[in-house]
Design a protein that fits this description.
The structure is a single chain. Helices cover 48% and strands 18% of the residues. Strand 6 and strand 7 form a beta hairpin. The termini are far apart.
């Protein structure tokens, strides 16, 4: 009898642990959904997006609300990210010194070019934006911090890929699917490989309306003390302003900013890469 009781307790403990892990996983997914929503979400929307019963979603939301991870607008019945979630997310930014170091250079880029400046990192096969200084122009690019972009179609993504070993870079884009976002998106692996070689040689990348029609982006890498690309800095603006004849001037400004941030964090910019495409070796 004692052994049976012990066995039952062990099973119950394991079951309880699994339930707690499942609840934690659901709560984290719930936070991700709310973070992606600009206007907040209703209980029905939250439950539906996660495939949960409304009662389960409501219990999770109230638990998160008790710790200020989510807020509820009682008048509209909309749930949104709370101040504690912001504080924890902001702690990530604090540990990345290059973000603080880059901001004055991003402001200068905006003043010099008139276009929005972005800062992005490569994470889990996509680009994540961790900094932005907006253009004063009415028509400008705006992204939410923490949002993601396809690595093969974004200027910052192509710049960061160009600093990786070619095999690793191509594997990342293939795993991402190489979706065509516009008629200008490079979706042929061989052509994309040639593009990365070109970027590595010239020191900057160009997103020529590859993610959004009418939008151009110029980006260059920021390097750490080992010569590894830790982030990419860019300017983005409408093609009617970021004209082809301005590319040489604008790319020089972006590369200067990238070098200055690299120096500010004690990094070193590697010499222009002269590697050849895999097919030519």
């Amino acid at each position: 009898m004692a052994d049976e009781t012990k066995l039952k307790k062990t099973k119950n403990t394991k079951a309880g642990g699994a339930t707690q892990v499942q609840s934690l996983s659901r709560a984290l997914l719930l936070l991700e959904r709310l973070a992606a929503s600009d206007m907040g979400m209703s209980l029905t929307d939250v439950a539906g997006s996660l495939g949960l019963a409304p009662s389960t979603a409501h219990r999770l939301l109230n638990s998160l609300r008790s710790h200020d991870f989510v807020d509820l607008d009682d008048t509209q019945g909309l749930w949104s990210i709370g101040v504690n979630a912001f504080s924890i997310g902001n702690a990530y930014l604090k540990k990345r010194d290059f973000i603080a170091q880059a901001r004055p250079h991003m402001k200068r880029l905006v003043a010099e070019t008139g276009e929005t400046s972005n800062l992005a990192i490569l994470e889990q096969g996509s680009v994540v934006y961790v900094g932005q200084v907006e253009s004063p122009q009415t028509m400008r690019m705006v992204v939410s911090l923490g949002s993601r972009s396809p690595v093969h179609a974004a200027g910052v993504g192509k710049a960061l890929l160009s600093a990786l070993p070619m095999k690793e870079a191509l594997e990342l884009v293939r795993n991402g699917g190489m979706k065509a976002y516009t008629e200008h998106t490079i979706i042929n692996p061989s052509q994309f490989e040639q593009e990365l070689v070109k970027i590595a040689r010239q020191g900057y990348s160009l997103d020529d309306e590859e993610q959004f029609e009418g939008l151009r982006c110029i980006a260059a890498n920021i390097y750490n003390e080992y010569g590894e690309a830790v982030a990419a800095i860019s300017i983005s603006g409408p093609a009617v302003r970021v004209k082809w004849e301005r590319i040489p001037q604008l790319s020089a400004l972006v590369m200067d900013a990238a070098r200055e941030v690299t120096q500010a964090i004690g990094g070193k910019t590697p010499k222009a890469n002269s590697r050849k495409p895999e097919a030519d070796r």
